Amino acid sequence: MPANILDGKALAKTIREELAVEVVEFIQQHEVVPSLAAVLVGEDPASEVYVRMKRRDCEQVGIHSVMHRLPETTTQDELLKLIGELNTNASIHGILVQLPLPGQINEQAILDAVSPDKDVDSFHPTNVGLMVQGRPRFLPCTPSGVQQLLIREGIETSGKNVVVVGRSEIVGKPLSVMMGLRGPGGDATVTICHSRTKDLPAVTREADILIVAIGKANFVTADMVKPGAVVIDVGVNRTDDGLVGDVDFDAVKEIASQLTPVPGGVGPLTRVMLLVNTLTAARQAQAK
Ligand SMILES: Nc1nc(=O)c2c([nH]1)NC[C@@H]1CN(c3ccc(C(=O)N[C@@H](CCC(=O)O)C(=O)O)cc3)C=[N+]21
Ligand SMILES: [Mg+2]
Q1: Which CATH class is domain 141-267?
Q2: 196 C-alpha to center of ligand 2: Å?
Q3: Beta-bridge partners for 210
Q4: Is the CB of 174 under 6 A from ligand 1?
Q5: pLDDT in tens, 137-157
Q6: 47 alpha carbon, closest ligand
Q7: In CATH, which superfamily holds the domain spanning 31-117?
Q8: In 64-223, where does DSSP find H-type helix?
Q9: Residue 1: what pLDDT?
Q10: Confidence of residue 288 (pLDDT cuts 50, 70, 90)
Q11: Which sequence positions are flagged as catalytic?
Q12: Ranges for the Tetrahydrofolate dehydrogenase/cyclohydrolase catalytic domain (predicted)?
Protein backbone atom coordinates (compact mmCIF):
# COMPACT_ATOMS: atom_id res chain seq x y z
CA MET A 1 0.00 0.00 0.00
CA PRO A 2 1.45 3.39 -0.88
CA ALA A 3 2.39 5.74 1.96
CA ASN A 4 0.02 8.19 3.58
CA ILE A 5 1.18 11.61 2.41
CA LEU A 6 1.56 13.96 5.37
CA ASP A 7 -0.05 17.29 4.47
CA GLY A 8 2.21 19.90 6.05
CA LYS A 9 0.48 22.71 4.23
CA ALA A 10 -2.91 21.86 5.71
CA LEU A 11 -1.46 21.41 9.18
CA ALA A 12 0.31 24.76 8.89
CA LYS A 13 -3.03 26.38 8.07
CA THR A 14 -4.64 24.79 11.13
CA ILE A 15 -1.83 26.03 13.38
CA ARG A 16 -2.06 29.53 11.88
CA GLU A 17 -5.77 29.61 12.65
CA GLU A 18 -5.09 28.63 16.26
CA LEU A 19 -2.37 31.23 16.45
CA ALA A 20 -4.61 34.00 15.07
CA VAL A 21 -6.91 33.49 18.08
CA GLU A 22 -3.99 33.63 20.49
CA VAL A 23 -2.68 36.82 18.85
CA VAL A 24 -6.07 38.54 19.25
CA GLU A 25 -6.14 37.56 22.92
CA PHE A 26 -2.60 38.82 23.41
CA ILE A 27 -3.39 42.17 21.78
CA GLN A 28 -6.55 42.60 23.88
CA GLN A 29 -4.71 41.80 27.07
CA HIS A 30 -1.58 43.87 26.52
CA GLU A 31 -2.51 46.51 23.93
CA VAL A 32 0.66 45.53 22.10
CA VAL A 33 0.88 43.97 18.64
CA PRO A 34 3.48 41.17 18.33
CA SER A 35 6.02 42.39 15.78
CA LEU A 36 8.64 40.73 13.62
CA ALA A 37 11.51 42.51 11.86
CA ALA A 38 12.70 40.64 8.77
CA VAL A 39 16.12 41.61 7.42
CA LEU A 40 16.97 40.74 3.84
CA VAL A 41 20.40 41.60 2.48
CA GLY A 42 20.95 41.48 -1.27
CA GLU A 43 18.78 39.99 -3.97
CA ASP A 44 18.81 36.20 -3.68
CA PRO A 45 15.60 35.20 -5.53
CA ALA A 46 14.80 32.27 -3.19
CA SER A 47 15.28 34.50 -0.14
CA GLU A 48 12.95 37.10 -1.64
CA VAL A 49 10.27 34.42 -2.03
CA TYR A 50 10.70 33.14 1.52
CA VAL A 51 10.62 36.58 3.09
CA ARG A 52 7.51 37.50 1.09
CA MET A 53 5.79 34.30 2.26
CA LYS A 54 6.79 34.96 5.87
CA ARG A 55 5.32 38.46 5.72
CA ARG A 56 2.06 37.13 4.29
CA ASP A 57 1.94 34.51 7.07
CA CYS A 58 2.35 37.30 9.64
CA GLU A 59 -0.53 39.24 8.15
CA GLN A 60 -2.77 36.17 8.29
CA VAL A 61 -2.31 35.75 12.05
CA GLY A 62 -2.26 39.43 13.00
CA ILE A 63 1.46 39.73 13.67
CA HIS A 64 2.96 43.02 12.53
CA SER A 65 5.96 42.64 10.23
CA VAL A 66 8.57 45.20 9.30
CA MET A 67 10.84 44.55 6.38
CA HIS A 68 14.41 45.85 6.23
CA ARG A 69 16.00 45.56 2.79
CA LEU A 70 19.70 46.24 2.48
CA PRO A 71 21.81 46.24 -0.69
CA GLU A 72 24.07 43.32 -1.69
CA THR A 73 27.11 45.55 -0.90
CA THR A 74 26.13 46.10 2.75
CA THR A 75 29.09 45.81 5.11
CA GLN A 76 29.11 43.72 8.26
CA ASP A 77 29.28 46.89 10.38
CA GLU A 78 26.25 48.36 8.65
CA LEU A 79 24.26 45.19 9.28
CA LEU A 80 25.45 45.05 12.90
CA LYS A 81 24.28 48.63 13.36
CA LEU A 82 20.78 47.77 12.12
CA ILE A 83 20.63 44.73 14.39
CA GLY A 84 21.72 46.87 17.34
CA GLU A 85 18.85 49.26 16.63
CA LEU A 86 16.33 46.43 16.33
CA ASN A 87 17.66 44.90 19.56
CA THR A 88 16.88 48.07 21.51
CA ASN A 89 13.60 48.89 19.75
CA ALA A 90 10.93 47.85 22.29
CA SER A 91 8.20 47.69 19.64
CA ILE A 92 10.05 44.82 17.88
CA HIS A 93 9.75 41.39 19.50
CA GLY A 94 11.36 39.12 16.93
CA ILE A 95 14.29 39.56 14.53
CA LEU A 96 14.85 37.33 11.51
CA VAL A 97 18.00 37.76 9.42
CA GLN A 98 17.38 35.78 6.26
CA LEU A 99 20.24 33.45 5.29
CA PRO A 100 22.40 33.15 3.28
CA LEU A 101 24.15 36.52 3.66
CA PRO A 102 26.52 37.96 1.04
CA GLY A 103 30.10 36.68 1.23
CA GLN A 104 31.63 39.80 2.82
CA ILE A 105 29.49 39.26 5.93
CA ASN A 106 30.35 36.71 8.62
CA GLU A 107 27.06 34.96 9.30
CA GLN A 108 28.06 33.74 12.74
CA ALA A 109 28.98 37.27 13.84
CA ILE A 110 25.55 38.49 12.74
CA LEU A 111 23.59 35.68 14.36
CA ASP A 112 25.55 36.16 17.60
CA ALA A 113 24.58 39.87 17.59
CA VAL A 114 20.83 39.28 17.60
CA SER A 115 19.45 39.67 21.11
CA PRO A 116 18.70 36.17 22.46
CA ASP A 117 15.34 37.56 23.64
CA LYS A 118 14.39 38.37 20.01
CA ASP A 119 16.08 35.42 18.34
CA VAL A 120 13.01 33.82 16.74
CA ASP A 121 15.20 31.53 14.56
CA SER A 122 16.81 30.24 17.78
CA PHE A 123 20.27 30.40 16.22
CA HIS A 124 21.95 32.31 19.09
CA PRO A 125 24.33 30.14 21.16
CA THR A 126 22.44 31.02 24.34
CA ASN A 127 19.22 29.69 22.86
CA VAL A 128 20.91 26.61 21.40
CA GLY A 129 22.34 25.90 24.85
CA LEU A 130 19.01 26.35 26.62
CA MET A 131 17.36 24.01 24.11
CA VAL A 132 20.06 21.36 24.60
CA GLN A 133 19.49 21.55 28.35
CA GLY A 134 15.77 20.95 27.82
CA ARG A 135 14.66 24.43 28.95
CA PRO A 136 14.12 26.21 25.62
CA ARG A 137 13.33 29.89 25.23
CA PHE A 138 12.61 29.28 21.54
CA LEU A 139 12.82 26.16 19.40
CA PRO A 140 14.49 26.36 15.98
CA CYS A 141 11.81 26.64 13.29
CA THR A 142 12.47 23.69 10.98
CA PRO A 143 13.18 21.13 13.74
CA SER A 144 10.16 22.38 15.66
CA GLY A 145 8.02 22.11 12.52
CA VAL A 146 9.09 18.48 12.06
CA GLN A 147 8.39 17.70 15.71
CA GLN A 148 4.94 19.34 15.59
CA LEU A 149 4.11 17.36 12.47
CA LEU A 150 5.00 14.10 14.24
CA ILE A 151 3.09 15.05 17.39
CA ARG A 152 -0.05 16.26 15.65
CA GLU A 153 -0.17 13.35 13.21
CA GLY A 154 -0.01 11.01 16.20
CA ILE A 155 3.31 9.48 15.15
CA GLU A 156 4.87 7.96 18.26
CA THR A 157 8.53 8.89 18.77
CA SER A 158 9.12 7.44 22.24
CA GLY A 159 11.47 4.47 22.04
CA LYS A 160 11.64 4.65 18.24
CA ASN A 161 14.79 4.54 16.17
CA VAL A 162 15.14 7.95 14.59
CA VAL A 163 17.83 8.41 11.98
CA VAL A 164 18.68 11.99 10.98
CA VAL A 165 20.65 12.39 7.75
CA GLY A 166 22.54 15.71 7.78
CA ARG A 167 24.22 17.60 10.62
CA SER A 168 23.57 21.25 9.78
CA GLU A 169 23.32 23.82 12.56
CA ILE A 170 19.84 24.77 11.32
CA VAL A 171 18.22 21.34 11.01
CA GLY A 172 20.14 18.10 11.60
CA LYS A 173 22.09 19.00 14.72
CA PRO A 174 19.28 20.64 16.72
CA LEU A 175 16.62 18.16 15.57
CA SER A 176 18.74 15.19 16.60
CA VAL A 177 19.07 16.72 20.07
CA MET A 178 15.38 17.61 20.35
CA MET A 179 14.21 14.12 19.46
CA GLY A 180 16.41 12.62 22.16
CA LEU A 181 15.08 14.94 24.88
CA ARG A 182 12.30 13.90 27.24
CA GLY A 183 8.73 14.69 26.29
CA PRO A 184 6.30 14.80 23.35
CA GLY A 185 8.06 14.38 20.00
CA GLY A 186 11.14 13.15 21.87
CA ASP A 187 12.33 10.15 23.89
CA ALA A 188 13.68 8.62 20.68
CA THR A 189 16.90 6.68 20.13
CA VAL A 190 18.65 9.02 17.71
CA THR A 191 21.39 8.36 15.19
CA ILE A 192 22.88 11.25 13.22
CA CYS A 193 24.47 10.51 9.84
CA HIS A 194 26.67 12.61 7.59
CA SER A 195 29.23 12.42 4.79
CA ARG A 196 31.58 10.22 6.84
CA THR A 197 28.96 7.66 7.85
CA LYS A 198 29.93 4.15 6.76
CA ASP A 199 27.31 2.17 4.84
CA LEU A 200 24.62 4.83 5.12
CA PRO A 201 21.88 2.62 3.61
CA ALA A 202 22.45 0.02 6.33
CA VAL A 203 21.97 2.73 8.97
CA THR A 204 18.94 4.39 7.39
CA ARG A 205 17.25 0.99 6.98
CA GLU A 206 17.20 0.73 10.79
CA ALA A 207 15.06 3.87 11.06
CA ASP A 208 11.46 3.75 12.25
CA ILE A 209 11.48 7.48 11.50
CA LEU A 210 13.91 8.70 8.84
CA ILE A 211 14.52 12.45 8.64
CA VAL A 212 16.52 13.74 5.70
CA ALA A 213 18.11 17.18 5.61
CA ILE A 214 21.18 16.89 3.44
CA GLY A 215 20.38 19.20 0.53
CA LYS A 216 20.80 16.71 -2.32
CA ALA A 217 17.89 16.13 -4.68
CA ASN A 218 16.47 12.57 -4.60
CA PHE A 219 19.32 11.37 -2.36
CA VAL A 220 17.28 8.82 -0.41
CA THR A 221 16.22 5.92 -2.57
CA ALA A 222 13.77 3.10 -1.82
CA ASP A 223 16.51 0.62 -0.85
CA MET A 224 17.52 2.95 2.03
CA VAL A 225 14.12 2.78 3.69
CA LYS A 226 12.71 0.08 5.97
CA PRO A 227 9.26 -1.05 4.84
CA GLY A 228 6.67 0.85 6.89
CA ALA A 229 9.03 3.60 8.05
CA VAL A 230 7.93 7.22 8.45
CA VAL A 231 10.02 9.43 6.14
CA ILE A 232 10.33 13.18 6.68
CA ASP A 233 11.89 15.11 3.80
CA VAL A 234 13.42 18.45 4.82
CA GLY A 235 15.15 19.05 1.47
CA VAL A 236 14.53 22.18 -0.59
CA ASN A 237 16.35 21.71 -3.89
CA ARG A 238 15.62 23.86 -6.88
CA THR A 239 16.11 21.76 -10.02
CA ASP A 240 14.99 21.88 -13.64
CA ASP A 241 11.99 19.83 -12.46
CA GLY A 242 11.13 22.58 -9.97
CA LEU A 243 11.35 22.33 -6.17
CA VAL A 244 12.20 18.79 -5.01
CA GLY A 245 13.18 17.24 -1.71
CA ASP A 246 16.05 14.99 -0.64
CA VAL A 247 13.90 11.88 -1.00
CA ASP A 248 13.05 10.05 -4.22
CA PHE A 249 9.35 10.58 -3.55
CA ASP A 250 7.80 8.31 -6.18
CA ALA A 251 9.93 5.30 -5.24
CA VAL A 252 9.92 5.80 -1.47
CA LYS A 253 6.15 6.25 -1.29
CA GLU A 254 5.82 2.58 -2.24
CA ILE A 255 7.93 1.53 0.79
CA ALA A 256 7.20 4.04 3.58
CA SER A 257 4.02 4.10 5.69
CA GLN A 258 4.00 7.90 5.84
CA LEU A 259 5.92 10.46 3.81
CA THR A 260 6.12 14.25 3.57
CA PRO A 261 5.97 15.86 0.12
CA VAL A 262 8.09 18.75 -1.17
CA PRO A 263 6.59 21.27 -1.57
CA GLY A 264 3.74 21.13 0.93
CA GLY A 265 5.47 19.22 3.73
CA VAL A 266 7.97 20.61 6.22
CA GLY A 267 8.44 24.04 4.54
CA PRO A 268 5.07 25.54 5.50
CA LEU A 269 5.52 24.27 9.07
CA THR A 270 8.92 25.94 9.29
CA ARG A 271 7.24 29.24 8.52
CA VAL A 272 4.50 28.67 11.08
CA MET A 273 7.05 28.07 13.84
CA LEU A 274 8.51 31.51 13.14
CA LEU A 275 5.07 32.95 13.97
CA VAL A 276 4.82 30.82 17.11
CA ASN A 277 8.23 32.09 18.22
CA THR A 278 7.32 35.71 17.53
CA LEU A 279 4.25 35.44 19.77
CA THR A 280 6.41 33.71 22.40
CA ALA A 281 8.94 36.57 22.17
CA ALA A 282 6.18 39.14 22.62
CA ARG A 283 4.82 37.23 25.65
CA GLN A 284 8.28 36.99 27.19
CA ALA A 285 8.89 40.71 26.63
CA GLN A 286 5.55 41.49 28.27
CA ALA A 287 6.35 39.30 31.27
CA LYS A 288 9.55 41.25 31.96
N1 LIG B 1 17.20 33.07 9.03
C2 LIG B 1 16.70 32.07 8.30
N3 LIG B 1 15.75 31.28 8.83
C4 LIG B 1 15.22 30.26 8.11
O5 LIG B 1 14.35 29.51 8.61
C6 LIG B 1 15.67 30.05 6.77
C7 LIG B 1 16.65 30.91 6.26
N8 LIG B 1 17.16 31.90 7.05
N9 LIG B 1 17.12 30.74 5.00
C10 LIG B 1 16.57 29.75 4.11
C11 LIG B 1 15.99 28.56 4.86
C12 LIG B 1 15.00 27.77 4.05
N13 LIG B 1 13.73 27.95 4.73
C14 LIG B 1 12.49 27.59 4.20
C15 LIG B 1 11.31 28.05 4.74
C16 LIG B 1 10.11 27.77 4.18
C17 LIG B 1 10.03 27.00 3.04
C18 LIG B 1 8.72 26.77 2.42
O19 LIG B 1 7.73 27.33 2.82
N20 LIG B 1 8.63 25.96 1.36
C21 LIG B 1 7.37 25.72 0.64
C22 LIG B 1 7.45 26.10 -0.83
C23 LIG B 1 8.25 27.31 -1.12
C24 LIG B 1 8.39 27.59 -2.59
O25 LIG B 1 7.42 27.42 -3.32
O26 LIG B 1 9.48 27.99 -2.98
C27 LIG B 1 7.03 24.25 0.66
O28 LIG B 1 7.94 23.44 0.90
O29 LIG B 1 5.88 23.92 0.45
C30 LIG B 1 11.18 26.50 2.49
C31 LIG B 1 12.41 26.78 3.09
C32 LIG B 1 13.91 28.72 5.82
N33 LIG B 1 15.18 29.07 5.97
MG1 LIG C 1 27.68 33.63 3.58
Answers
A1: alpha beta
A2: 24
A3: 163, 231
A4: no
A5: 999 999 999 999 999 999 999
A6: 1
A7: Leucine Dehydrogenase, chain A, domain 1 (3.40.50.10860)
A8: 76-88, 107-113, 125-132, 141-152, 172-178, 200-204
A9: 81
A10: confident
A11: 54, 98, 121
A12: 6-121
